[in-house]
Amino acid sequence: MQPTSIVIPALDEEEAIARVIAEIPRGSCHQIVVVDNGSRDDTAGAARAAGAEVVSEPRRGYGRACLSGLERLRADTEVVAFLDGDYSDYPEELPLLTGPIYAGRADLVLGSRLLRRENLPFLPTHQVWGNRLALALLRRIYGRSFSDFGPFRAIRRGALERLRLTASTWGWNVEMQIRAIEVGLRVEEVAVRYRERVGRSKISGTLLGSLRAGARILLTILARRPLHGRARPGGPAAL
User: Fold this and answer.
1) Is the pTM of the predicted complex or chain greater than 0.70?
2) 7-46 pLDDT, tens digit each
């Protein structure tokens, strides 16, 4: 069993969370942590019944949930993976993300939904174009191209600690990628499958939700803008 811990932020995912946990290949991880981010349903109970450890983080925010989950990591964890709790990702693809890290080729592996055209029907158009705008801005400022800011990703624990992430909401993923550039991590992208989530998205399911998340992502990129063409060493994004 590989020393990988999976952190799953979850908000009102009672219908989906057990299915997500059931599809995680047990030989590819030794710990599953579900962070209940203030759910109004029984997400916590469903996750616990499915065999996950459950952490309560009542303060809403994707980044806050991730940070709270990291506090529960086992001492012998070497790789941390992040996965959504809405069943839109394919948990069985976890080895695609952790494999390059254990092979010594990468420190951070990003699961890209946009590298597979068959995923596009499950991604709202406004989400795809907002993602592309943010990616273009990041490329313009930092000179590094990515294809996605997707949530399914894995990172070496020591590398994650070097990043000193602070984003509390939807800037978490983009802050991770920016900080990876700044500290010189070896980053790979792999194509992952994507499907229609269970239930309605709290973000892309509404235009207002998408605009709010998009604004957080853009602000995170601009707040960390490097000075004089060089990546600055790191003040917190706090977004």
Assistant:
1) yes
2) 999 999 999 999 999 999 999 999 999 999 999 999 999 9
Q: Where are the domains of the chain?
A: 4-223
Contact 79, 155 (CB under 8 A): yes
Report the length, in residues, of the chain: 239
- 3-class DSSP state of 237: coil
What is the rounded CA–CA span in Å between residue 57 and residue 72? 12
- Of 57, 59, 58, the closest CA to residue 70 belongs to 57
Query: Residue 120 corresponds to which amino acid?
Result: L
User: Quick one: CATH architecture of 4-223?
Assistant: Alpha-Beta Complex (3.90)
Chain centre to alpha carbon of residue 95:
16
Tell me phi and psi for residue 116, to 5 degrees.
-125, 115
Report d(CA 227, CA 6) in Å as an integer: 35
Residue 154's nearest CA partner among 74, 76, 81, 73 is: 81
Higher pLDDT, 234 or 179: 179
**CA 215 – CA 237 distance, rounded (Å):** 13
Query: At residue 45, what are phi and psi to the nearest 5 degrees?
Result: -65, -40
Run of H or E residues at 79: strand 79-82
C-alpha distances in Å from residue 55, one per residue of 59, 139, 155: 12, 35, 21
Residue 115 contacts residue 147 (beta carbons within 8 Å) = yes
Q: Is the pLDDT of residue 115 over 70?
A: yes
